[in-house]
Design goal:
This protein is α+β, with helices and mostly antiparallel strands. Helix content is about 40%, strand content about 30%. The chain contains seven helices and twelve strands. The strands form two sheets. Strands 1, 8, 9, 10, 11 and 12 form a six-stranded mixed sheet that branches. Strand 5 and strand 6 form a beta hairpin. It is elongated and about 65 Å long.
Length: about 280
């Protein structure tokens, strides 16, 4: 009888341990005390995961840059002075190039060509409905180096964040400035990649802009708010650590817990991807 009871107790202990372990895998939150070696191993593993997520984001943005640049160069060739009626030809075929750009990078939207005077060019000619020659982004593009792609954003519009790619257009022969190519892409296309962090058994991922505006958070009411403003002085060390490093770990105290986060900055976008993975009793 005693032997059976001992076996039952052992089974209960084993099942309980398995439930605790599986709970940790599901939630991605590891509770310690753990040895420093174990803790460092967990942090390094999760840091590698975050770096992999950011590399995927950067690779996708690089592909978008290439597609955008290819479309701009194609437009410039069409707009070359070697054609007798280059400007009209430019207008007639530019819509095809925009279609090609959308196929190469389907997450682009609102792709627009502007004339050398800031007017929108449509398939029917120059539209005089609105002029953008005095807009800061247009003036910057006009002054920038040839073939330089400028990234504007993240810009908060209609309850979501967007990025804009801007590039000046020139005639290939004369080098004369002929206008600007502008395309919009939703930042959600990139921040959604950060969700794959959770598929590795980790906890939540968050995305911040380089000035600490919240771009993606499980609490949607926090999106567009500034993390440092919300957190106050307690977040100053958090800000300093992230500002001075491309990747690493940060600690934050919250409700009697010391939460350890891993972070990594994108090299292609002005964003920081953060993972919450370790909770320590203070």
């Amino acid at each position: 009888m005693l032997k059976r009871l001992t076996i039952k107790i052992k089974l209960i202990v084993v099942v309980t341990m398995l439930l605790i372990f599986s709970s940790c895998l599901i939630t991605g939150v590891y509770y310690i005390p753990l040895s420093d070696t174990t803790k460092d191993g967990i942090l390094n593993e999760q840091n590698s995961l975050i770096e992999g997520i950011v590399r995927r984001i950067d690779d996708q943005m690089s592909s978008n840059h290439l597609a955008f640049e290819s479309a701009a160069m194609a437009i410039e060739i069409i707009n070359s002075a070697e054609y007798v009626d280059a400007y009209q030809r430019f207008i007639v075929v530019h819509q095809r190039r925009i279609t090609a750009l959308q196929k190469l990078a389907p997450n682009f939207s609102d792709i627009t060509i502007f004339s050398d005077n800031g007017d929108i060019i449509t398939k029917d000619g120059v539209s005089n409905q609105a002029n953008f020659k005095n807009e800061a982004w247009y003036l910057d593009a006009k002054k920038s180096d040839k073939e330089k792609i400028t990234l504007i954003g993240p810009v908060y519009e209609n309850s979501s964040y967007n990025l804009y790619l801007i590039r000046p257009l020139y005639e290939t022969v004369s080098g004369k400035f002929k206008g600007v190519l502008k395309a919009k892409t939703a930042l959600s296309f990139f921040t959604d990649i950060a969700d794959s962090y959770k598929s590795f058994g980790a906890s939540e991922s968050y995305v911040l802009s380089d000035n600490f505006d919240i771009l993606k958070h499980r609490d949607k009411s926090l999106v567009s708010k500034n993390l440092i403003s919300i957190g106050g002085e307690s977040f100053n060390s958090f800000k300093k650590e992230i500002s001075n490093n491309k990747k690493g770990f940060v600690n934050l105290e919250f409700k009697g817990k010391n939460k350890i986060y891993v972070f990594c900055k994108s090299s292609q976008l002005p964003i920081i991807v953060i993972g919450s993975i370790l909770t320590v009793d203070i």
